[in-house]
Amino acid sequence: MKARLALAALALGVSVAAPAAARSPQESDAPVLIRWPDPASVRAEATRLPLFAQEMERAREDVDAAIRAGVHVPVPRDPGGGATHEQHKRNYKAIQDAGFLYRLTGEARYAEFARRMLLAYADLYPGLGPHPAAANQRPGRLFWQSLNDSVWLVHAAQGYDAIRQTLSEDDRRTIEGKVFRPMATFLSKGSPEVFDRIHNHATWANAAVGLSGYVLRDPDLVEKALLGLDKSGNSGILRQLDLLFSPDGYYAEGPYYQRYALLPFVLFAQAVEENDPQRRIFAHRDGVLLKAVHAAIQMTYQGHFFPINDAMPDKSLRTEELYAGVAIAYARTRDPGLLSIAQMQGRTILTAAGFAVARDLAAGRARPFPFRSILLRDGPEGERGALAVLRSGAGPDDQVVVAKNTAQGMGHGHFDKLNWLLYDNGNAIVTDYGAARFLNVEAKQGGRYLPENESWAKQTIAHNSLVVDETSHFGGEVERAEAHAPRQIHFEGEGDTRVSTAEMVGAYPDVRFRRSLVQLRVEGFSSPLVLDLLRVEGGAAHQYDLPLHFAGHIIETGFPLQSNPASRPVLGTANGYQHIWVDAIGAPTTADAFVTWINDGRFYTYRMLPAAGSQVILAESGANDPSFNLRREPMLIQRVRGSEDATFVSLLEPHGAYDPSAETTVGSRSRIGGLRHHRDAAADLVEIDLPGARTLVIAIADDPSPAAAHSVTFQGRPLAWRGHVGRFDIVRDATTDQDGMSMP
Amino acid sequence: MKARLALAALALGVSVAAPAAARSPQESDAPVLIRWPDPASVRAEATRLPLFAQEMERAREDVDAAIRAGVHVPVPRDPGGGATHEQHKRNYKAIQDAGFLYRLTGEARYAEFARRMLLAYADLYPGLGPHPAAANQRPGRLFWQSLNDSVWLVHAAQGYDAIRQTLSEDDRRTIEGKVFRPMATFLSKGSPEVFDRIHNHATWANAAVGLSGYVLRDPDLVEKALLGLDKSGNSGILRQLDLLFSPDGYYAEGPYYQRYALLPFVLFAQAVEENDPQRRIFAHRDGVLLKAVHAAIQMTYQGHFFPINDAMPDKSLRTEELYAGVAIAYARTRDPGLLSIAQMQGRTILTAAGFAVARDLAAGRARPFPFRSILLRDGPEGERGALAVLRSGAGPDDQVVVAKNTAQGMGHGHFDKLNWLLYDNGNAIVTDYGAARFLNVEAKQGGRYLPENESWAKQTIAHNSLVVDETSHFGGEVERAEAHAPRQIHFEGEGDTRVSTAEMVGAYPDVRFRRSLVQLRVEGFSSPLVLDLLRVEGGAAHQYDLPLHFAGHIIETGFPLQSNPASRPVLGTANGYQHIWVDAIGAPTTADAFVTWINDGRFYTYRMLPAAGSQVILAESGANDPSFNLRREPMLIQRVRGSEDATFVSLLEPHGAYDPSAETTVGSRSRIGGLRHHRDAAADLVEIDLPGARTLVIAIADDPSPAAAHSVTFQGRPLAWRGHVGRFDIVRDATTDQDGMSMP
Q1: Do B604 and B685 belong together in one domain?
Q2: Is B463 among the catalytic positions?
Q3: Residue at B586 is within a domain
């Protein structure tokens, strides 16, 4: 282990300090949390490493400005977004950056500034009680939520660690005795209901306390951070690594919070690796933490996280947490794909890990990140559904189908079992609203989650999943939702016919539904077609709504519409329906049930197979929203009434191009001649009429076993396949073609 | 003259052919329309000139593909966007590009392809009658509109000119006798009602006929193109240069059609300069054509044209017409600012002019284009209003206020006298809808202007200008509108207080209104404030509506709103009002009349000074739109009822920043403490309370004369200024501050 670390250090080109295992923190003044490049290397090389040089320059600008502004440590008063809140945020960044700059440059003024700032906190902190603006979350001292206090401590501990060597015994005693120790105590045994939870707030508290433990040379605090207050291992960071991540590195709350939670995990793990390498924390659970970094990146499109569950849709890999995550993962793995992510981020961290990223990037070692189709199982044992990602290629504009077959994901989870999303041509096409929230915008309830997050964003109708009788899955109750997870039945991420099939039982009493999403590469189509087959068995007569939230401007509808020109009604009264304006209602036939829209120069036709008597509702979000808290986005709803069972067959076809520069438009109309569905005894068959008198038949057996052989007689032809899904290319004869819409 | 041309040729590094003045086209086979770089220079240099090399590569790909696809010259059948329409478009580009590639490479296969294509047209053309899909426009033969036939001929003539030298006498006779001469005849004396108009369709026809004239060695056709069918000069290209452009290079129909019209002007002018330099066409009217190229560029933000009048808002400088415009203007002026435009376009043309652009760009000669505040007068004598552009700086993100004080601009003009637009931080903030049209999208009425272009996009309420009694300016009648133009009273484009003031009389009977837009640089504000003072005298009691169409999501309204939660009514029944959904209505006071929205991470607060009893309506476009032809965009309307006169005082304040990566928000609330207005005998005074107990007073005299001295007593203080606008920074005393909202 020693040898490996020393070699790693050599490879990093950093000053080879005594290997961590041999270090006795109690006896040394040297920094313990982070490995640093030595200042001589930085001086010699940094200017030739744009990524690192820019990062230093950015930190210098910030800290120099903070030094000019002077130490300003106000008495806490404001909620999120307010002046004192923002000042304390600036301060922890300044403390950290000043410490880091001192390590990189050796300039004493940086150490001095961090010292003065920390001494000011030593004056302030001991006198603080609960924050005056505390709301419904656990109150902090410096901030309205103790979560923010943890974040403060994670940053400040790293900054302090970097300058501790420069301080007098007196200063250390003051800072540690009045800031780090009491904060660590407050966040650990002073807040057991947070510290011992299995939740991202606890992760931050654990990391804050653990990092403080190393800095204070207090192994007891470190143990508590790792194993919980009672050191039993029933809580603490390691238990959280066990319970919050699936074996594939999927974080229970979804990608938005995965990003957020990753930072305390990786920062603390880095310190554990430095000081207690025998714990092999990066190897814990088969390397789950590194898997989690990779999984987070896989759950992005054009750098933006899939906005499932509570999520800000503008959140991308260009974020603090992932700068650290990528650099720390790279330092451990040397995975050249991570370098291209760092390049896209255009940022890194000011440590030896970031230095290595910058150096290897400058040396041309980056390789494209291997974006691919991937099944990320959910649940500690991988047994609670999955996020299925079908990616048509590794490029940034390639098509991605996301099947959200995950479990509920706690309080930030949305009620949208078997929901799906589509990205194509660089854009979100079938969308997820994300969270109803304006982060840190004071006028929007201080930047907190808005009431519409409950009344709209979390409701099933706000997603692309089945709604039974205008109520949300699990009646919108988190506890009931946590009790049931979908079952991922089949996943095939390669080839011309990529498939995810999942089943949900328990979202509604006595209702079971199964959905297959099939990404079909078809010759002559530049982007794959997406077939969506959703079959529900309800036991009794129900109303079934299948919404599709899409991004774009409607170009054409194939069927007549009854519009609401003079006054626009609301669709319902509760469960999100009160937020839906109805533009028009139609009753399409199987021959004319399509809607075409345009998004960023490409056309999308959504073709349906409506049952007799069913309706299609064209609508928009944003009703019953007197404070303008919601975005207004189009949707359509397929509605079937009074049926026990129903099958929704839909096909999404990207086509054509509009080029505003050249003023040319090609292929603005769908090329699919017809769509038909046939239910056999134990399989569904969908026919798709292609140009050139070809018909594609997709056969989906109920039985997912790969070995099972299936055969049906279909339109007088025997069709046989093995496994869950069969695909047949058939040349139509003229008779069929003339009757292209007939149900077989 | 000869010497100058030869020198220019040397400077261009092109083969110095016999100077044009000495050339006798009738006696030479050489190309006459365009000056070419010699193939040796191209071979030696092109690979080192990325702009030119890419352009050649692009042309090669297109033409090589066309050669592989074979000559396909279908019998005309389809309207715009249809298959035969698009094929004939591809063909004229292929003929042109093949000719150009032959000139640059000397490869015979390119000449041969153009020859075969032209011979196929010689087979087709003589048998054609009026196009079968002709609609309400003048029908062509190859296309549904004769306009497209002109465009075909402009391109094909240039391609033919480039290969003519390679053809046998027989082929020339066939192609000229069956294509160029009959087309030129059809478009000139066969279509006098188009050819002799003053209109962009005529420009295309004139250019097509004129270029054909040079190629056919027929001076008579050239004369007609320049001077009209009767050669009197009452029509033709020169007359169009006189009447369609203002002395400042503003084109009557506005920037969208300016871009479109420029291409035939510059291509034909280039040929005139080559063959008839004594006409000094580029010097015509003090160089109006070159001014027009510069004016077109000045009328952009982030490369996009201001979308006033009928315009596609996605239209940018990255368009065919401006690649040629920039290169041809550069070849004449060597203005290094044009090189940076070419760089932004990333495109040029395959001629000596484009070669010079590419070479000088590669040599690092580009300088930033001098974007600046500019007054572009409208009308042949500059007497019919103006487009006033206040630009806070030359950078792409700097703020731009556009005051649309132009005349009607013929059939594509909108009824929006004294309308305004705002760009800030790289985005359109106060917006213009542009045209209701989906260019070339078949399902949207073949890509033509939609009915909603008349019922919404052209109406006054769809703009940011005054609406009297829910009717549009001039009753929405073009003829009445053409009879009246606004009067630009004052323009000051430099300094801390930039101003445009204009007056409109005649938009409504007995109604006169005047508007000052003031762009105020204020210390401590990163972007200027914009003050909008609009005063109307109506002679009798009216309802006055002042709409503001803005881009962004509403964050906060200062005043209580009566919302329409359960059903959303329509505001009116005609003149565009039938397309407005009403979200909420409020009756703000002077103390709380503001609305804040966010756009791309920056906040915008629009503060009003409502008269007693007035209303603010929050609304959205898109009602009464059963075919989803309209975009849905937010607006607010200040409404005053039953007044003879009214003054609308509004202040737009950009502020703060939301950063989704860092999750920080600063300055999300307005910093303006109050806004007050005082009408003096012959001046308006507006007070703006700034942070730090400062008050800014803007005094706008009715009299615009620069020399006039004004003095008023204001809140016990004497205020004196000279000229139209005075500005005073006042330190408030405590008493005033406590009563900051009092009307003086």
Answers
A1: no
A2: no
A3: yes
Higher pLDDT residue, A2 or B202?
B202
Query: Measured between alpha carbons, how far is A596 from A605 in angstroms, rounded to an integer?
Result: 4
Helix (H, G, I), strand (E, B) or coil at B530: strand
Q: Contact A438/B318, CB-based, under 8 Å?
A: no
Q: Closest approach of chain B CAs to the CA of A348, in angstroms? A: 14
Q: Mark which of B203, B237, B271 sits at the end of a domain.
A: B237
- DSSP-assigned letters across all residues of A300-355: EETTEEP--SS--TT-BS-SHHHHHHHHHHHHHH--HHHHHHHHHHT---SSHHHH
* Alpha carbons within 13 A on the beta-carbon side of B626: 10
Q: Which of A155, A412, A490, A542 is flagged as catalytic?
A: A412
Helices and strands in chain B: count of H runs, count of E runs: 20, 28
Query: Is A440–B661 a contact, with Cβ atoms under 8 angstroms apart?
Result: no
Residues B696 and B660 in one domain: no
From chain B, the residues in CB contact with A664 under 8 A are: 86, 89, 440
Instruction: Choose the catalytic residue: B250, B257, B301, B544.
Output: B257
Question: Are residues A563 and A436 part of one domain?
Answer: yes
Residue B54 Cα distances to B36, B46, B250, B346, angstroms: 17, 9, 32, 9
Facing A569 at nearest CB: one of B316, B567, B662: B567
In the listed set A206, A237, A268, which residue is the last one of a domain according to the structure? A237
- Is residue A604 flagged as an active site residue? no
User: pLDDT per residue over A299-311, tens digit each?
Assistant: 999 999 999 999 9
- Beginning with the edge strand found earlier in the chain, give each strand of the sheet holding A400-406 in spatial order: A374-377, A385-391, A400-406, A419-424, A427-430
E-strand ranges in B455-614 read 467-468, 487-492, 497-508, 511-520, 529-549, 553-557, 562-563, 567-569, 580-586, 594-599, 602-608
Q: Which of A417, A416, A447, A418 is nearest to A434 (CA)?
A: A416
Minimal-distance CA residue of chain A relative to B659: A439
CB contact under 8 A, B86 and A444: no
| Among the partner residues A555, A569, A583, nearest to B444 by beta-carbon distance | A555
Is B569's CB within 8 Å of A567's CB? Answer: yes
Confidence band for A566, pLDDT divided at 50, 70 and 90: confident
pLDDT (tens digit per residue) in A20-38? 333 444 457 899 999 999 8
Catalytic residue selected from A92, A125, A251, A257: A257
Q: What is chain B's mean pLDDT, rounded?
A: 93
Tell me the chain B residues in contact with residue A669 when contact means C-beta distances shorter than 8 Å: 442-443
- Does A534 share its domain with A559? yes
- Is A91 strand, coil or helix? helix
* 302-331 in chain B: CB under 8 A from chain A: 312, 314-316, 318-320
Question: What domain range is A107 assigned to?
Answer: 70-237
| Interface residue A668 vs chain B (CB under 8 A) | yes
pLDDT tens column, A582-636 = 999 999 999 999 999 999 999 999 999 998 899 999 999 999 999 999 999 999 9
B647: helix, coil or strand?
A: strand
Residue A327 lies in a domain: no
Contact A669 B443 (CB under 8 A): yes
The partner residue sitting opposite A81, judged by closest CB among B312, B444, B668, is: B668
Q: How far apart are CA B406 and CA B490, in angstroms?
A: 14
pLDDT value, residue A569: 95
**Contact at CB, B89 and A565, closer than 8 angstroms:** no
| Nearest residue to A124 (alpha-carbon basis) of A98, A161, A156, A163 | A156
- The CA distance from B157 to A341, in Å, is 50
In this complex, is the C-beta atom of A444 within 8 Å of any C-beta atom belonging to chain B?
yes
Name the 3-class secondary structure at B577. helix
Both tokens assigned to B100: 């150009």
Q: Which residues of A touch B316 (CB under 8 A)?
A: 660-661
What is the number of domains present in chain A?
3
